[in-house]
Amino acid sequence: MAMRTDASTGQLVAVDEPAGAKQAAKPADDLLHVKVWSPFRVFYDAEAVSVSGVNGTGAFDILPRHRNFITLLNSSDLVLQTKEGEIRIKISGGVMQVHSNVVTVFLEV
After folding, report:
1. Rounded to two decimals, what is the model's pTM?
2. What is the spatial distance between Cα 23 and Cα 61, in angstroms, rounded to a whole number?
3. Which helix (H) or strand (E) holds 33?
4. CA separation (Å) from 30 to 63, 79, 99?
5. Which of 28, 58, 63, 103 could form a disulfide with 34 if both were Cys (CB 3.0 to 4.6 A apart)?
6. Which phi-psi region, left, alpha or beta, contains residue 93 (left: φ > 0; alpha: ψ -120 to 50)?
């Protein structure tokens, strides 16, 4: 059963999940699950060893077990290191969220 924090009381409460609700697969501790997408296209949705990007303070890397993190991305190449090799996605900007080994990148359109 899923739990959530009630915004008004701060207490944990049970959440009923709809029948057949699909849970996102939890990545292994040595991998990140990365989804890079825009409203019109999914550019990448699989595991990666690391993610590199550029924000207002410069270049940065995300590795497995990274702290929760959110940032605005600058125009650059988003670099995904996978077990098969390197993937580069040229972006004009976006928002990146990191939470529990899951990296979600929402690209600007």
Report:
1. 0.72
2. 27
3. strand 32-38
4. 8, 18, 14
5. 103
6. left
